[in-house]
Amino acid sequence: GENVEQHPSTLSVQEGDSAVIKCTYSDSASNYFPWYKQELGKGPQLIIDIRSNVGEKKDQRIAVTLNKTAKHFSLHITETQPEDSAVYFCAASTPPDNAGKSTFGDGTTLTVKP
Amino acid sequence: EAGVTQFPSHSVIEKGQTVTLRCDPISGHDNLYWYRRVMGKEIKFLLHFVKESKQDESGMPNNRFLAERTGGTYSTLKVQPAELEDSGVYFCASSRKGNYGYTFGSGTRLTVV
């Protein structure tokens, strides 16, 4: 089955700095890679995603890159703000017409210090 | 549209007791998933419904866990009898047929003492 590894487990940055979280996956059948942000007391919320036919996607201050050959993908947050503090999860998923099942990483706790 | 609703938000039960968790997905979402996060580790897949049918239940830990989805609407996850290792946060998520990405509920924190 799929195995997703996520690093680092904790990350502390100063407000305004960039943050990078990296994930690797094992199953080449995975073709969809979402990132979720979980704030305290809430469920994970989809913040950005990328499909395997795309190498990079950007949405304002967040971007995701995918290296399909190396089976790794990364989340980049620029100009971090205190409200970016949360737990971030990467996931690797099979296509929705093949169950759409996601395998998650262990999560990264990001702390942005004012 | 209303989000995915889960209740209770918290449940503390004694070992050996029964607990039923409920999930109301977003209306019109055929796909419903149950996931669990234990001890701060990864969010782990439990099972997947398409409407009222179980598509994949490969992640269910053992036969103490029973999931149902009545009429393709809300779903329940029953744990009977509960064991200490069942403690964790149980998440429900839903998505439209053919859609990538989920909408998660806020989760149910289950503590078995």
Commentary on this structure:
The complex is a heterodimer of chains A (114) and B (113). Chain A is mainly beta and 114 residues long. Helices cover 0% and strands 55% of the residues of chain A. In chain A, strands 2, 4, 5, 9, 10 and 11 form a 6-stranded mixed beta sheet that branches. A 5-stranded antiparallel beta sheet of chain A has the order 1-3-8-7-6, with no helix packed on it. In chain A, a hairpin with a 4-residue loop joins strand 7 and strand 8. The radius of gyration of chain A is 14 Å and the shape is globular. By secondary structure, chain B is mainly beta. The model of chain B has no long low-confidence stretch (mean pLDDT 94). In chain B, a hairpin with a 2-residue loop joins strand 5 and strand 6. Chain B is globular and about 40 Å long. The chains are: A mainly beta (114), B mainly beta (113). At the A-B interface, strand 4, strand 5, strand 9 and strand 10 of A face strand 4, strand 5, strand 9 and strand 10 of B.
Task: State which percent range the strand residues of chain B make up.
Answer: over 45%
Overall spatial form of chain B: globular
Percent of residues in helices of chain A: under 10%
- Rg of chain A (CA only): 14 Å
Order of helices and strands of chain B: EEEEEEEEEEE
Describe this protein with a few key phrases.
heterodimer, A: 114 residues, mainly beta, 5-stranded antiparallel beta sheet, 11 strands, 0% helix, B: 113 residues, 7-stranded mixed beta sheet, globular
Give a quick precis of the structure.
Chain A has 114 residues and is mostly beta strands. Chain A is built from no helices and eleven strands. In chain A, the strands form two sheets. In chain A, strands 2, 4, 5, 9, 10 and 11 form a six-stranded mixed beta sheet that branches. In chain A, strands 1-3-8-7-6 form a five-stranded antiparallel beta sheet, with no helix packed on it.
Detail the topology: elements first, then pairings.
The complex is a heterodimer of chains A (114) and B (113).
Chain A: E1 4-7, E2 10-14, E3 19-25, E4 32-38, E5 45-51, E6 56-59, E7 62-67, E8 72-77, E9 86-93, E10 102-104, E11 108-113
Parallel strand pairs in A: 2-11
Antiparallel strand pairs in A: 1-3, 3-8, 4-5, 4-9, 6-7, 7-8, 9-10, 9-11
Chain B: E1 5-7, E2 10-13, E3 19-24, E4 31-37, E5 43-50, E6 53-56, E7 65-69, E8 75-79, E9 88-95, E10 103-104, E11 108-112
Parallel strand pairs in B: 2-11
Antiparallel strand pairs in B: 1-3, 3-8, 4-5, 4-9, 5-6, 7-8, 9-10, 9-11
